[in-house]
Design goal:
By secondary structure, this protein is an alpha+beta fold. It has four domains: about 5-200, no CATH class; about 210-395, no CATH class; about 405-530, no CATH class; about 545-665, no CATH class. The protein has 29 helices and 17 strands. A hairpin with an 8-residue loop joins β3 (about 60-70) and β4. α26 (about 580-595) packs across α27. The chain is elongated, with a radius of gyration of 32 Å.
Length: about 675
């Protein structure tokens, strides 16, 4: 068998590889800028802590590092082709760890320094980024302070590690770092670096969240244990949820955490799963997987309500599905409690009805239906009354709904008319426009004047009201085909009067049809609609689209438009003119330091900041009082997490809301 001559791949210990005197790494000019944010740093530190807690045989694989020898330099430098982001972040963590022990553990500090700086020149780092930002990187790692006027990802991520790594935890972090491994791929002179880079980064489909969850659950088990868990738990979950398995895991996590879980990008569902289930050994897995399988069975019923034996519950689940699957986290919760005998059938049906009222009314008044259900799950955990209040707050009032029904197109017309007109299966009927949306010249509302004789204003008025509630009814397809395009008097006699739908027969009692008849019927049907899709009879305000702070979007990095993300913030009854998350972060932290200091101190002690007793590293700081300082150099995601966390710790998160601007809604 022949051997490769231009590619050498070796599994190595990452710290030993970096510590070797011969290892110096140069990032070539064509590489992109360093762009890992604090979310990536959190994951790296979490992985290091996790492997540190395992026994001596465990290792953590960080992937492959692709490099080539630099034949143009007198130094034996490695040109880093793939792995810049990981290696740079790792170096920043090691630099922060070095700072925490340099005065207390000289032996460990020396070991860390061998990773960071060149043996032949202690003023140079072993990693040399692109020349455009190399001096800035070295300034951060070596703490020279000569680039203090500049801000960068190096500063922010180093500051994060400094805030999280303390001297008493340093031995554990160092133990975890020494368990990191990677495949070192070194290219020979004749190797095609670009082709190998593309092969490493572009082949195959990236794993989806549920596939990562599957691997995470099974990876640490023996082969026999994997087969058992796969057969008893995972395969039944797949069978129940089918192609919706990814949505199942997201909805399950929203239900259990009471927090929104990102569906797109950054593997938000997988990350949330790992946070919820940090240990998946056999002892924990058995009980957890039983729960997952039970909820998957319920999810299968939500996807296919025909499997529900109770006729009324089945009908209500079908109604809920009219609005998609956004409400599934709450439905999972309430259905599960009903199945377990914790609540009665009446409460389950009440919840399903209330959800329909919420979604229909918001659709009618053109309010978004996204990011609503997590707050409802949180409210339900406090009881039915709390859920009713939460629903009332975000369900538009009767007045708003009545106003739009007069002139707006009716959404989900078959569903709405079916319930209004008492038709169990509206799918078997046509939605009949009494005034056609595009009347023919011969169409007439009274049998006297043809459409072509209507004035332009009359035609415009009829067209405007054609898709509204008062002009719609259900009609059997055979009757609809018979009178298609005919004037109203013909449709009245030959179709409406012969319909099996009472509400349609009632239309035939009107001799002529026009805007007045439509308006009168709208008033009558609106009263029925408000009764069927009732808003909880509570004094809570209709909040016009305010978002609870715990449901505010946590955005990675600094997306375009972030400076105008909010119109305002409602803080415990106060209205703050707060345009962006950085301003909000500063104001909430200052307020917490004044009003709820004990909770603020507890949060910062648990999370390593963002309030400190000294300005421990260079960067942007804000002084809270004589002995406490707020570091302002975080990214958007970290700042929003901190705002949410400290308000939650203080017990006042339910009293804080954000109003997104147009920019914020489209970001």
């Amino acid at each position: 068998m022949s051997t490769a001559t231009n590619v050498e791949a070796t599994a190595v210990n990452t710290i030993e590889w970096l510590s070797a005197e011969s290892t110096t790494i140069v990032v070539p000019v064509y590489q992109r800028q360093y762009r890992w944010d604090i979310g990536g740093c959190e994951q790296l530190l979490s992985d290091v802590r996790a492997v540190a807690a395992e026994d001596a045989t465990h290792r953590h694989f960080i992937g492959s590092i692709l490099s080539a020898q630099d034949d143009t330099s007198s130094d034996a430098d490695l040109i880093l082709i793939d792995g810049q982001q990981r290696i740079t972040t790792l170096m920043l963590l090691i630099a922060a760890l070095h700072h925490s022990v340099r005065d207390s553990d000289l032996e460990m500090a020396a070991e860390l320094r061998r990773v960071l700086v060149r043996a032949d020149d202690p003023t140079r780092t072993k990693l040399r980024p692109h020349d455009a930002w190399a001096e800035l990187y070295e300034s951060v790692v070596l703490e020279r302070g000569d680039q203090a006027e500049r801000e960068s990802r190096f500063d922010d991520n180093y500051a994060f590690f400094r805030s999280q790594v303390h001297a008493d935890e340093a031995p554990q972090i160092w133990r975890g770092l020494q368990k990191l491994e990677h495949v070192s791929i070194t290219l020979g002179a004749a190797a095609n670096a670009q082709q190998i880079f593309e092969s490493l980064n572009s082949t195959g489909e990236p794993l989806r969240d549920h596939e990562l969850i599957h691997n995470y659950i099974l990876m640490g088990l023996t082969h026999a244990e994997q087969l058992d868990v796969e057969a008893r738990f995972w395969l039944p979950i797949e069978q129940q949820t089918g192609e919706a398995i990814g949505a199942f895991w997201r909805h399950y996590l929203v239900m259990t955490t009471g927090r929104e879980v990102a569906a797109n990008g950054e593997h938000g569902v997988y990350s949330a799963f790992r946070q919820s289930f940090p240990r998946v050994d056999v002892a924990h897995l058995q009980s957890d997987a039983e729960v997952w399988r039970r909820y998957a069975e319920i999810y299968g019923i939500l996807l296919d309500p025909a499997r529900e034996p109770d006729a009324e519950i089945r009908r209500q689940l079908e109604y809920v599905n009219t609005f998609g699957r956004a409400s599934y986290p709450l439905v999972l919760s309430v259905y599960s409690d009903h199945a377990a005998g914790l609540i009665g059938r009446e409460e389950l049906v009440w919840t399903l009805e209330a959800l329909q009222a919420l979604y229909l009314r918001r659709t009618l008044v053109n309010l978004p239906n996204e990011r609503l259900v997590a707050r409802l799950c949180r409210a339900r955990s406090e009881g039915r009354d709390a859920l009713a209040r939460a629903l009332a707050r975000i369900t538009p009032s009767d007045e708003r709904v009545s106003a739009v029904l007069k002139y707006s197109e009716l959404p989900h017309a078959a569903y709405v008319l079916g319930r209004l007109e008492g038709v169990d299966d509206p799918a078997g009927y046509d939605v009949e426009h009494i005034v056609p949306t595009v009347p023919a010249d011969s169409w007439s509302g009274d049998g006297v004047r043809a459409w072509s004789e209507y004035t332009e204003d009359e035609q415009n008025s009829h067209r405007a009201l054609a898709p509204t509630l008062g002009n719609l009814t259900l009609l059997e397809p055979r009757l609809a085909e018979r009178v298609f395009g005919q004037p109203y008097p013909v449709k009245r006699a030959d179709a409406y009067a012969r319909s099996g739908v009472q509400a349609t027969r009632d239309v035939a009692a009107t001799e002529a049809w026009g805007t007045a008849a439509i308006s009168q019927r709208t008033v009558r049907l609106t009263a029925d609609l408000l009764r069927i899709w009732a808003r909880p009879a509570l004094p809570e305000i209709d909040d016009d689209g305010l978002t609870p702070i715990l449901d505010a979007v946590r955005r990675r990095g600094w997306p375009a438009g972030w400076e105008r993300e909010f119109d305002y913030v409602e803080y415990r009854g106060e209205r703050w003119e707060v345009p962006d998350v950085k301003y909000l972060f500063n104001r909430v932290m200052r307020r917490a330091w004044t009003d709820t200091r004990e909770a603020a101190v507890a949060y910062c002690a648990t999370h390593g900041g963002p309030i400190y007793s000294e300005m421990a590293w260079k960067g942007q700081w804000d002084q809270l009082d004589e002995g406490h300082f707020l570091y302002m150099g975080w990214d958007s995601n970290y700042m929003m997490n901190a705002v949410q966390g400290i308000l939650d710790e203080s017990g006042i998160a339910s009293e804080v809301f954000v109003k997104y601007s147009y920019i914020g809604n489209v970001m």
